[in-house]
């Protein structure tokens, strides 16, 4: 309090509840804490990687209410009330998610650093296409669903970089999971 009686306390943190991989976590976080840092440093979910920390590489991709986001650009307080899914939350117990299985089958990784973000992005790509969301290369904009051919997959995955160059195998893995779905 100042001499005038005004409260000068600046709140720079809040207690929030994040729902991550189906579990609630109550955290006292600085308002400037990114979702990426909250996941890695406070919840010990280190599968999500910090690459560029500027939203340019996609290594930090997670799902927020099923939509892919860059966790390095999202404040943790903005994720309160939403369902966050990380690479650790995709498997069903010991059973890997089909995209995780396909990445293994097609050797769609080398060093593995970008792989969690690539996989989370691929899961969202499949959902976006199934929901009929067009991309810049989609030919039929009136279709209810989008066929995930190689051009569609490359375009939709373009926000996720792989320094090792495993792109051919990543496209093959996503294509396998997409199957013959329109």
Automatic annotation (TrEMBL):
Pfam family, one: Fer2_2
Occurrences of domain 2Fe-2S ferredoxin-type (ranges): 14-90
Gene3D superfamilies in UniProt: 3.10.20.30, [2Fe-2S]-binding domain
Record key words, sorted: Iron, Metal-binding, Oxidoreductase
Originating organism: Pseudonocardia acidicola
InterPro entries, per the entry: 2Fe-2S-bd, 2Fe-2S-bd_dom_sf, 2Fe-2S_ferredoxin-like_sf, 2Fe-2S_ferredoxin-type, 2Fe2S_fd_BS, Aldehyde_Oxdr_Iron-Sulfur, Beta-grasp_dom_sf
SUPFAM superfamilies assigned: 2Fe-2S ferredoxin-like, CO dehydrogenase ISP C-domain like
Domain of life according to the entry: Bacteria
CDD domains, sorted: fer2
Keyword Metal-binding: yes
Protein known as: 2Fe-2S iron-sulfur cluster binding domain-containing protein
